[in-house]
From TrEMBL:
Domain of life: Eukaryota
Name under which the protein is recorded: Thymidylate kinase
Domain (Thymidylate kinase-like) ranges: 54-230
Native source species: Eruca vesicaria subsp. sativa (Garden rocket)
Signal peptide annotation: none
GO biological process terms, semicolon-separated: nucleotide biosynthetic process
NCBIfam families: DTMP_kinase (TIGR00041)
Coiled coil region boundaries: none
Family of the protein in this entry: Belongs to the thymidylate kinase family.
Taxonomic classification: Eukaryota, Viridiplantae, Streptophyta, Embryophyta, Tracheophyta
Metabolic or biological pathway, per its Swiss-Prot or TrEMBL entry: Pyrimidine metabolism; dTTP biosynthesis
Keywords: ATP-binding, Kinase, Nucleotide biosynthesis, Nucleotide-binding, Transferase
The enzyme's E.C. designation: 2.7.4.9
Enzyme kind, highest EC tier: transferase
Amino acid sequence: MFRTSIGSSFRVLALPPRSFNCLPRSLKRSSVRMENLTFSTESNAKPRGALIVVEGLDRSGKSTQCAKLRSFLETSGHTTELWRFPDRETSVGQMISAYLSNKSQLDDHTIHLLFSANRWEKRSLMEEKLKTGTTLIVDRYSYSGVAFSSAKGLGIEWCKAPEIGLLAPDSVVFLDISPERAAERGGYGDERYERVDFQTKVAGFYQTLRDSSWKIIDAGESMEEVEKKIQGVVLDKVKECALGKPLSLLWSS
């Protein structure tokens, strides 16, 4: 029945108007449904902001480059906001902050779910911002959560599960630097996870998570060179989203 209905729909579209009036009502309905399906995606395409995620090991330069990128996009005329995860201002974020600064102890599964909950707290607002034309630069996202928890020994698929349904980034900019070189930068070791042996494990899981949305930038180059490369990658994505690229969901295929 399905093959007959679809075949009839295409024949209907080829017939002159008078012939169409003589056809059974069921065939008319199926042809109309086919036409609506064909054009709905194009007609609903609306400009929106881009979701840009910046990832990397601790002390890879994410915060600095995120701030520079925001300034560049705003100067270029794009409404832009800079977000960070964890968002330590929320009630969940405050629990995470206490854990990261070694002021509290939590089971590895518990802290992973708190990190995920912290992203879900902002999910609706994130979608609203993007749909109304604001580009979001996000310093760390689900990839950090999965890579860090997996490095502690939790199963990678278990770690990904609570992230499913969050918005997928339009581009992930990964600042690539060796753990040893990152450790030479100022302030290293202030937080729980800033240990070279642990960061080496995290780097391995980041590599496992890479997909076609990722752009790898050598974070060992000069700050200006890194900044320039990021701008080139992101500007293309911002323009693509302004043309109506639809939003998609993370790890939902």
